């Protein structure tokens, strides 16, 4: 009975909350280093989950709406091909600098010893302010490249970018 009462009163936000709870409970917990905002943490979790599940369309939907959709889709496919195995296991996300506006996030995929840098930025989707991911790596080599500034282990730079 309580379920029917809750279901009858649910809204789109409740559906999103239920989807999040399902995703959260069906994936390994994400370890966090640094200082994410609620928005940057949420989108980062979704990126890892979509990669782990091999859901290219849903991963591409997390991309910056101002980017070319074909580039975003190809990037999503590249990320899944390269990082799916590692994203399904233990992952540490290190959030660099302050996260209320935009944030660089480095994902450490422990099971495969891979590292992936992503950029989280604010966007407007359906008139709402949200966070999205910059997905402009249609070349597989670019998608798997590791920038020289990125440390081999989380926390080595104190979650502060050094130019």
Topology readout:
Elements: H1 2-8, H2 12-25, E1 30-34, H3 38-53, H4 56-60, H5 69-87, E2 91-96, E3 103-109, E4 114-125, E5 128-133, H6 140-144
Parallel strand pairs: 1-2
Antiparallel strand pairs: 2-3, 3-4, 4-5
Keywords:
single chain; about 160 residues; alpha+beta; five-stranded mixed β-sheet; disordered N terminus
Describe this structure in words.
The protein has 163 residues and is α+β, with helices and mostly antiparallel strands. Helix content is 40%, strand content 22%. The chain has six helices and five strands; from the N terminus they run H-H-E-H-H-H-E-E-E-E-H. Strands 1-2-3-4-5 form a five-stranded mixed sheet. Strand 2 and strand 3 (103-109) form a beta hairpin. The longest helix has 19 residues, at 69-87. It is globular. The N and C termini lie far apart (58 Å).
Could you give a short description of this structure?
Helix content is 40%, strand content 22%. The chain is of the alpha+beta class.
Question: Regarding quaternary structure, how should these chains be classified?
Answer: single chain
Strand content: 15-25%
What's the end-to-end separation, in Å? 58 Å
Helix share, percent:
40-55%
Number of helices: 6
Radius of gyration, CA atoms, in whole angstroms? 16 Å
What order do the helices and strands follow? HHEHHHEEEEH
- What's the overall geometry? globular
Could you give the count of β-strands? 5
Derived from helix and strand composition plus strand pairing, the structural class reads alpha+beta
Strand order of the largest sheet: 1-2-3-4-5
- List unreliable stretches of 5+ residues: 1-7
Q: Mean pLDDT, rounded to whole units?
A: 88
Instruction: Report on the biggest sheet.
Output: 5 strands, mixed
